[in-house]
Design a protein that fits this description.
Elements lengths: L9 H13 L10 H17 L13 E5 L2 H20 L7 H13 E6 L5 H9 L2 E5 L11 H13 L3 E8 L11 H8 L6 E5 L24 E5 H4 L7 E5 L2 H8 L9 H5 L18 H35 L5 E8 L2 E6 L29 H23 L5 E5 L2 E7 L8
Parallel strand pairs: 2-3, 2-4, 4-5, 5-6
Antiparallel strand pairs: 1-7, 6-7, 8-9, 9-11, 10-11
Amino acid sequence: MAFFPASSTYPGMLGELYSAAFTAPAFNWLCSPAITELETIVLDWLADLLALPTCYSSNGEGGGVIQGSASEAIVTVMVAGRERAIRNAVDGLEEGEERERKVGETRGRLVALGSEQSHSSTAKAALIAGVRYRAVPCRMEDDMAMKGVTLRATLEQCEREGLIPFYLTTTLGTTATCATDRFGEIAEVASDWSNLWIHVDAAYAGAALICEEFQHLTRHFEVFDSFDVNMHKWLLTNFDASCLYVKKRRNLIDALSITPSYLRNEFSESGLVTDYRDWQIPLGRRFRALKIWFVMRTYGVQGLKAHIRNHIRLGELFHSLVKSRPDVFRVLTPPAFALTVLTVVPRLSSHSVTATSQLNPAHEAYTNDFTPDAGSQATVDANAVTKEVYESVNRQGEIFLTSSVIAGNYAIRVVSANPKAEE
């Protein structure tokens, strides 16, 4: 109930066992053709299952590759976005001192963006890529989602500072509240920043896209550059199986391909085969596609959909139980993807307290001369009691919960998406 699930199933473990027996390096097609081609096949299957736009399919200019984690995927596409921005900046300049000077100047002005609710991996990726980082504000009244208007304002502020925005992480299911950014608004803003690489981090909640009722969320993905979902979170596949899709695989290859003489071969140079070493940061890689194949063939489309829908149903049930006790709990943000975020109501508080000028007999402290801001004092009291309840539950050791601070509110997160969760 604490963290997003990290599923481990018999089919996944069996696929991992067979993969370990093969122990293939799988860095290019020549040394591991079957491993390479099965990865392409299962990722195209998954793209269809998630209703991703066809531009992410290997049949066109895009395609998928299995990474170790969503964080690794973000680093990979941020480097690809950085190199694309630099290539665009020096386009038309011949090799030489002027070009090198322009590369250095551009690199020093690049800035990556994510929302305040983006996973910390985006800020970490910026450190690794050697670029600056800016956070786009999120508000409670927007359910902590990133909106187009705040994104545009942040982009314009970056440009006023002389910076070059080149990358953005937008999120389907943030870690703290499972908020979904306003993709339509972001796509509209993107039309004015063609140099901006937009990545959709759907590490956990992206799994829900296999259900038709959530597939409307992919409507604007064809405008974006990449998408990532972790099968090892909610899709019954044991760690690690992070599925990264790019709209134009050439951007990854141009950024990450270095071919020394000992890796050259006629098949790679023909351009007719895929060498996944050029789609990732490491050279070698494991046979992770096999466990995905085992899981998908074992559970099937309907089995995976039933798995997701059952957990969402349990999340809605838990939310209804929380809502039935407004005297004890307050739901902080709308429940989403089997996650409920709540705070504990102080025993003497009132839900309607808004100002010291309004009498509140249920809480004398909010109406005396020593409390100038009743709303702030209510938050302080709620934070204190919520933290106390959270720590008390975890001390007992029967269940484990996680907490978060959202717009100044200390909150408890309860995740219903666990394989052993029951009504």
